[in-house]
Amino acid sequence: MTITYLSDEIWNQKRDELAASILTLQAVKLLKGRNADPALVDAAREVATHKMAEIDLLPESCREQNAA
Fold this sequence. Notes:
About 70% of the residues lie in helices and about 0% in strands. It contains three helices and no strands.
């Protein structure tokens, strides 16, 4: 097998395109209730949790904890 080298800029672009493709496929699986990659789902849920907290959108289960 021959190794192909790309400029750092092109390599970063291709990597980001592939990552976006992988995430899109996993999102479709998650939305359809199919087996998505658990590590990617957990990472996405963690980011979503932080984003929602940034705009003060919390689950009901946190109400008592925040009232204390």
